[in-house]
Amino acid sequence: MRFPPIFFVFLAAAGALCGNIRVTISDLFPASLAEELSAEFVALEVEARVNRGGSMLTMDALRAGQIDAAIIALPDENVPEGPFVAQACAYQVITILVHESNPVQQVSLDQLRMIYAEGGAIDEWGRLGGTGTWSARRITPNAVRMPENVGLEVFRFHVLQEAPMRAATRYRSSIRAALAEVSDDNTAIAILPAPRPDARARTLSVSFDAESPAYSPTPDNVMFGDYPLRLPFFLIHREDLDTAQARAVKRAVFSDRFERGLRDADFMPLPERERRDRLMEAETMPQ
């Protein structure tokens, strides 16, 4: 997107008007994302303090006026109403990976439950539509379990709920290790807390139930909620936040720098056109 030269003149002047903006981002994000956001505020010539914190305490701080804006993880139905402005800005996406030669194309949440829950009834690829030699081939369940990553908990919330994980599940300590396992073992299925594909693995489309269409984890499908295995992150600030501060926060959160940081940290940003629309909205906010 190309902005007219006057935009950059206005941008430089805006920094002096914003004051010191207090922003807290989710502690589910790595520290590197707080650093990227701080660096973007510096690039915008805006004074800001960026910290990390949990969602509940951060919302309490917003209500008390102790911070000006936040990025927190919330299910769609829990987005606060009242004196707040909330916009989705990123997603934790859980993808279901199989070997590139696997003929199965899609899976439902119920089927995933029967694969991964203890006592589940699905053990063979034939139960998911595999034919020929695949019909009797055993399923080898894998999952990524990493410190400070809630991907597995997001999967439990959507799929297992209160059911325990199947004891035969093989846990991998990194995304790279899970990708390697699925690439090498054509019987494997893996829960991956990232939208990242691999040359010898592919993602399954996922449906809410047997009667619903299955969707792949594209940015559009994730944003609109058609793809079920995701946790949204919302940018939230009070409605009465100073316009210059609100504009600066949106410029930073929807910037190219923060978008790259999200991708590098295995989170999914908004679709590009939506992110650009958010930036344009920031420029047209009333004075």
Please tally the helical runs, counting DSSP H or I stretches of 4 or more residues: 10
Strand order of the largest sheet: 2-1-3-12-4-13
Q: Give the radius of gyration.
A: 21 Å
CATH fold title of the largest domain: D-Maltodextrin-Binding Protein, domain 2
Q: Would you report the number of β strands?
A: 13
Strand content: 15-25%
| Topology pattern, helix = H, strand = E | HEHEHEEEEHEHEHEEEHEHHEH
> In CATH, what is the class of the largest domain?
Alpha Beta
Largest sheet: 6 strands, mixed
Structural class of the helices, strands and pairings?
alpha/beta
Q: State the fourth-level CATH superfamily of the largest domain.
A: Periplasmic binding protein-like II
Can you name the CATH architecture of the largest domain? 3-Layer(aba) Sandwich
Mean pLDDT: 90
- Can you tell me the number of structural domains? 2
The amount of helix comes to 25-40%
As residue ranges, the low-confidence spans are 1-17
Shape: elongated
Distance between the termini: 23 Å
